[in-house]
Amino acid sequence: VAFLSQIVLARWMGRHEFGIYVYVWTWLLLLGSLVPLGLCTAAQRFIPEYSAQGDHARLRGYIFASRWLVVAIATAIGGVTIAVLFAFRQYLDNHYVVPLVLMCACLPMSAAQDGISRSYNWIDMALAPGYIVRPLVILAFMAGFHFAGMPNTALYAMASTVFAYWAVTVVQMLMINRRLNEKVPAGPRKYETKFWLATAFPIFMVESFYFLLTYTDILVLEIYVGPDQVAVYYAATKILALVAFVYFAVSAATAHRFAEYHVSGQREKLERFLSDSIKWTFWPSLAGTLGLLVVGKSLLSLFGEGFSSGYGLLFVLSIGLLARAGVGPVERLLNMVGEQKACAAIYALAFIANLSLCFLLIPHLKLYGAAIAISAAMMFESAMLYLVTKRKLGLHVFVWRKPA
Fold first, then answer.
1. pLDDT tens digits for range 205-225
2. What is the pLDDT of residues 390-401, one digit of tens each?
3. Does the pLDDT value for residue 88 go beyond 60?
4. In 303-396, which residue ranges form alpha helices assigned H by DSSP?
């Protein structure tokens, strides 16, 4: 649904305006992923743990604090960002300033609810709001502007995004509360905020470098090329995001299981489940990649005139995606078993490699420089995750293994 909505927006807006929207949207995804401070992912550790122990006071405390603490922090970050944008607006391109301000209005709605839903196996509630409902709401508002004869600009797209973020997130919160009332008995809350933040901080570092690694290519690319070229590159990444979603979906469904098996000492079950999760990630990813490479040029042409020029990028970008799929959701495993610092170090190195390669290659190779940089960084990341997991946990985390 998100993919199809991007196609429609690109066709309505054209490459230039869509490129501006893509740049601001990327900042929203990056900052929105960071403001939960790791508390969203940490929920998949604490909620199963407190539930298993029958510690309902801490359970209630964590569910409440992990949401509203994020709202407060995101509001503060958004306010500071708006102040900085206005203070330095004379140094910025005018067509970016107002959309970036609207982006800040979305940040408070980045509350840590997905992790709560995943911890209770409510995958529909974790994924549907962000990946189905929100894109449809954005598209509905843009359709209204489009058919009313309003300009199809990044400004109107971001205004639609603000409404979608607030409306969908508030409804999601109300629906989760209704389900929680059936799962968590009413009573007093106990807070261990310092402990929760201290535990979540290494996870936050992992996620920070992971998302920086994911979005750096687009943010650096904007320095060297125009919005129309950014739009072409983004369209290529969105096509392969259909493959990347396999990795994301398996990760979303397995992290709390890793924590559960580790806490209960079920080593054999953990190994078997990890092996299965790697297979669930790699083989569908491989099949999907091959299929998309066959029809990729046609898919790119759906975005509009000039987008098919990015067809060659698909081959370069797919190498990194398959390398990551080959080790499965192993970074979630490391986070859930207390190896957050090692995982953070790996993603920090991969981010540095990606950033360095972006600045080295993009000035000369433009879009292909960005694609080579991110693929090389993902290959490095996957190799390091394999080696660290093998050394620290004694687990084999590559899809191919020698027969016993």
1. 878 888 888 899 999 999 999
2. 888 887 778 776
3. yes
4. 311-325, 330-336, 340-365, 367-393
Beta carbons of 70 and 37 less than 8 angstroms apart: yes
Q: Is the pLDDT of residue 402 over 70?
A: no
Cα 200 from Cα 38, distance rounded (Å): 5
Q: Which tokens go with 156? A: 């109107």
> In this structure, what DSSP letter does residue 266 have?
-
Report pTM: 0.81
Cα–Cα dist 340/229, whole Å: 37
344 vs 346: CA distance, rounded Å: 5
What's 368's DSSP letter? H
pLDDT at 249 over 90: no
Q: What is the DSSP string of 48-86?
A: HHHHHHT-HHHHHHHHHHHHHHHHHHHHHHHHHHHHHHH
- Kindly tell me if the per-residue pLDDT of 197 is higher than 80: yes
Q: What does the block give as tokens for 279?
A: 């297979």
CA–CA distance, 261 with 282 (Å, rounded to integer): 22
Residue 403 burial (10 A CB sphere; 0-12, 13-18, 19+)? exposed
- Give the Cα separation of 23 and 349 in Å (integer): 24
Contact in structure between 36 and 110 (CB atoms under 8 Å): yes
Determine the distance from the C-alpha atom of residue 90 to the mean position of all C-alpha atoms in its chain, rounded to a whole number: 31
**Any idea which residue has 């009573």 for tokens?**
187
Q: What is the pLDDT of residue 105?
A: 93
Residues 6 or more apart whose Cβ sits within 8 Å of residue 261: 267, 269, 270, 273
By CB neighbour count within 10 A (0-12 exposed, 13-18 middle, 19+ buried), where does 132 fall?
Answer: middle
Cα Rg of the chain (Å, integer) = 21
Encoded amino acid at 56, one letter: H
Identity of the amino acid at 315:
F
**pLDDT for position 401:** 64
pLDDT band at 239 (very low <50, low <70, confident <90, very high): very high
Whose structure tokens read 């944008």?
Answer: 85
Which ranges constitute the DSSP H helices of 148-266? Answer: 154-183, 193-224, 227-263
Two tokens at 127? 């994924």
pLDDT, residue 201, reads 84
242 pLDDT higher than 50:
yes
